[in-house]
UniProtKB/TrEMBL annotation, chain A:
<dbReference type="InterPro" id="IPR004516">
    <property type="entry name" value="HisRS/HisZ"/>
</dbReference>
<dbReference type="InterPro" id="IPR045864">
    <property type="entry name" value="aa-tRNA-synth_II/BPL/LPL"/>
</dbReference>
<comment type="subunit">
    <text>Homodimer.</text>
</comment>
<dbReference type="InterPro" id="IPR006195">
    <property type="entry name" value="aa-tRNA-synth_II"/>
</dbReference>
<dbReference type="InterPro" id="IPR041715">
    <property type="entry name" value="HisRS-like_core"/>
</dbReference>
<dbReference type="GO" id="GO:0016757">
    <property type="term" value="F:glycosyltransferase activity"/>
</dbReference>
<dbReference type="GO" id="GO:0004821">
    <property type="term" value="F:histidine-tRNA ligase activity"/>
</dbReference>
<feature type="binding site">
    <location>
        <position position="96"/>
    </location>
    <ligand>
        <name>L-histidine</name>
    </ligand>
</feature>
<dbReference type="Pfam" id="PF13393">
    <property type="entry name" value="tRNA-synt_His"/>
</dbReference>
Automatic annotation (TrEMBL), chain B:
<keyword id="KW-0328">Glycosyltransferase</keyword>
<dbReference type="GO" id="GO:0005737">
    <property type="term" value="C:cytoplasm"/>
</dbReference>
<protein>
    <recommendedName>
        <fullName>ATP phosphoribosyltransferase</fullName>
        <ecNumber>2.4.2.17</ecNumber>
    </recommendedName>
</protein>
<comment type="function">
    <text>Catalyzes the condensation of ATP and 5-phosphoribose 1-diphosphate to form N'-(5'-phosphoribosyl)-ATP (PR-ATP). Has a crucial role in the pathway because the rate of histidine biosynthesis seems to be controlled primarily by regulation of HisG enzymatic activity.</text>
</comment>
<dbReference type="GO" id="GO:0000105">
    <property type="term" value="P:L-histidine biosynthetic process"/>
</dbReference>
<feature type="domain" description="ATP phosphoribosyltransferase catalytic">
    <location>
        <begin position="53"/>
        <end position="211"/>
    </location>
</feature>
<dbReference type="InterPro" id="IPR001348">
    <property type="entry name" value="ATP_PRibTrfase_HisG"/>
</dbReference>
<dbReference type="Pfam" id="PF01634">
    <property type="entry name" value="HisG"/>
</dbReference>
<keyword id="KW-0368">Histidine biosynthesis</keyword>
Length: 367, 230
């Protein structure tokens, strides 16, 4: 590698190649501002993005953020008046502050492709994945896929209250808290002493606190949660079968055909996931029809669980198997829920992905 | 010359002077009362630099001072990957303070991080924005809450009088240092039972980035006198 200056020029040229390939397929090239309003992104992603974003102040527009990704501005542009169905491509720098020293860059190019299609969602999943697969084929990368929707469906199928399901779904992206909740709901972890004392006090009608009310969280919000805690305490624990099924599902990690077989078997005792498993099969068949060797494809049930929270369906990534420390060379997935949030009532099924041309250029130089 | 950075005023400075005095090293301020100049007696080749405790982590990381006394909380909060730029040489046994998360006493339903997380979820749904936690320790608090898998909160910056932010409606909870808990109680706040983020105390740090060339004699002398391994 000849220093940052040349590396960046090479990355831009490499990215331009992908951008041209996307445009040639009919994707409309679009630009997004580098300075994005911070509030929208912070509200969507929370503190994680603040730690990783360069936030700055604009005298007229207030708190702004150096673009941490393209997905949000692309969705916003589409929502503001894009035709349907639509295919977009783009290229530019994104900025991610790094809190730890290492190989990850604070500023790098992304070149991406996004499909907004209301009708043929499974085809669109297959289209995006197959496109990335063929463009990256010369690099011999490891490809992995998953489906967050499968996990969400499994939680929906649990025999428990909607509140418990919502709590589990909310933490699907935070494995440690998810585990703690699952243990609590399964009755496998002790109820904290303070919770037991509180529930006893609620039963005896003893006054809970003499402290004056301060802050924005109101008496009625507190009362609502107290009721919720009482209801939850009266809720039966998850059945051992339910928990075992969930754990079996989360542990699935194998080549695509073997994983599908395991999933189909699991669906016999977990009917809630049968629909998503059938969808996965349709997706795999579509990939097979496009000439992708499923035997070389990894399926990991929890894939995408520790990345940004907006993926809620099919997810994928391409990795240089020889360097586990590097970020994925390309990654993407379906983010229907994000369009629902940004669309304020409107939504459009969307799937897409990005390639990091700098990593591609490095691998090509090595070859 | 080894440059030793020490807090420039208050109890932290006095206690630091006492700590070094026990090893027979006299640190003192010189000149007028308002002048930040100092002198070292009892050991050769060491210069005293008086600094704000909050700036000492940065000066250590930049290698502009070799040794520095500051709170372990400040080093962890102000320096990314702090172990890469400084080493802990001695826990000095004073300046104790706990970085904790506190919520209003009038929340009987919240005692643990799990409760806070659940309350944050409901709060966001009710108010349309994330539950605000006021703090000046952004890195430590964020890393703690991320590790705990807490969602639906936001940090709001508070450089002082943090305990008042809840009553002033600029935050719903706080993360701040406390030693006796008195200010918390006076402001009707309680500490979460599993909300201890870091137990801080005054600590002698050595810079990994400073130029230690030509400091060998002073280094050996200090190591022996302070029973540390420079």
């Amino acid at each position: 590698m000849d220093g940052t200056f040349d590396a960046k020029a090479t990355a831009r040229l490499t990215g331009a190649r992908f951008l041209a390939a996307f445009a040639e397929l009919g994707a409309q090239a679009i630009e997004a501002d580098i300075l994005q309003p911070a509030e929208v992104l912070l509200d969507l992603y929370g503190e994680d993005i603040r730690a990783r974003a360069f936030v700055t102040h604009d005298p007229l527009r207030g708190e702004m953020m150096l673009r941490p990704d393209f997905t949000v501005p692309v969705v916003q542009e589409h929502m503001a008046g894009g035709a349907e169905p639509a295919r977009y491509c783009y290229m530019g720098e994104v900025f991610r502050a790094q809190e730890h020293a290492g190989p990850r860059e604070a500023e790098f190019f992304q070149v991406g492709y996004e499909v907004f299609d209301r009708v043929n969602t499974l085809d669109a999943d297959a289209e995006v994945f197959a496109l990335f697969h063929s463009l990256l084929a010369p690099l011999g990368l490891r490809a992995a896929v998953g489906d967050i929707g499968l996990l969400l469906a499994a939680i929906d199928g649990l025999d428990t209250t909607d509140k418990r399901k919502a709590a589990l779904k909310r933490h699907i992206w935070h494995p440690k808290r998810f585990r703690a909740l699952l243990d609590r709901f399964a009755g496998r972890s002790a109820v904290p002493a303070s919770r037991q004392a509180l529930l006893a006090a609620l039963d005896s009608d003893a006054p809970l606190t003499q402290a004056p009310m301060i802050g924005l969280r109101s008496q009625s919000e507190i009362a609502k949660r107290l009721t919720a805690l009482q209801e939850d305490a009266a809720t039966a624990p998850l059945s051992p079968n339910d928990v075992a099924g969930l754990e079996t599902l989360f542990a699935i990690a194998d080549k695509a055909p073997k994983s599908l077989e395991t999933l189909q078997e699991l669906a016999l005792t977990m009917p809630a996931i049968a629909g998503r498993v059938a969808m996965l099969e349709t997706r795999f068949n579509a990939l097979d029809a496009k000439g992708i060797d499923l035997g070389g494809l990894d399926f990991e049930a929890t894939y995408g669980r520790t990345t940004l929270e907006y993926y809620d369906g099919f997810v994928f990534g391409f990795y240089d198997a020889s360097d586990a420390g590097l970020p994925p060379v390309a990654s993407g997935g379906r983010y229907d829920a994000l369009t629902r949030v940004l669309g304020q009532g409107r939504e459009i099924p969307a799937v897409g992905g990005v390639i990091r041309p700098a990593l591609v250029a490095q691998l090509e130089a090595k070859a | 010359m080894i440059k030793l950075g020490v807090p420039s005023k208050g109890r932290l400075m006095e206690k630091t002077f006492e700590w070094f005095a026990q090893a027979g090293i006299t640190l003192k301020r010189t000149g007028s009362e308002r002048e930040y100049a100092g002198a070292v007696e009892g050991v050769e080749g060491v210069n005293l630099v008086l600094l704000s405790a909050g700036e000492i982590p940065r000066e250590l990381a930049a290698g502009r001072i070799h040794l520095g006394v500051t709170g372990s909380d400040l080093v962890r909060d102000k320096l990314a990957d702090w172990q890469n730029s400084v080493t802990e040489q001695a826990l000095m046994g004073f300046g104790h303070a706990d970085l904790i998360i506190a919520v209003p006493m009038c929340w009987p339903d919240v005692d643990t991080i799990e409760d806070l997380d659940a309350a944050a979820s409901a709060f966001r749904a009710e108010h349309g924005f994330r539950l605000r936690i006021a703090t000046k320790y952004h890195r430590l608090v964020r890393e703690f809450l991320r590790d705990q898998g807490v969602a639906d909160y936001q940090l709001v910056d508070s450089q002082g009088a943090t305990e008042g932010t809840v009553a002033n409606l600029t935050a719903e909870a706080i993360a701040d240092i406390t030693s006796s808990g008195e200010t918390l109680r006076a402001n009707h706040l309680k500490i979460l039972s599993d909300g201890l983020i870091h137990k801080s105390q005054a600590t002698l740090f050595a810079s990994k980035t400073a130029d230690w060339a030509g400091c060998d004699a002073a280094k050996a002398d200090l190591s022996e006198r302070l029973k540390i391994a420079l």
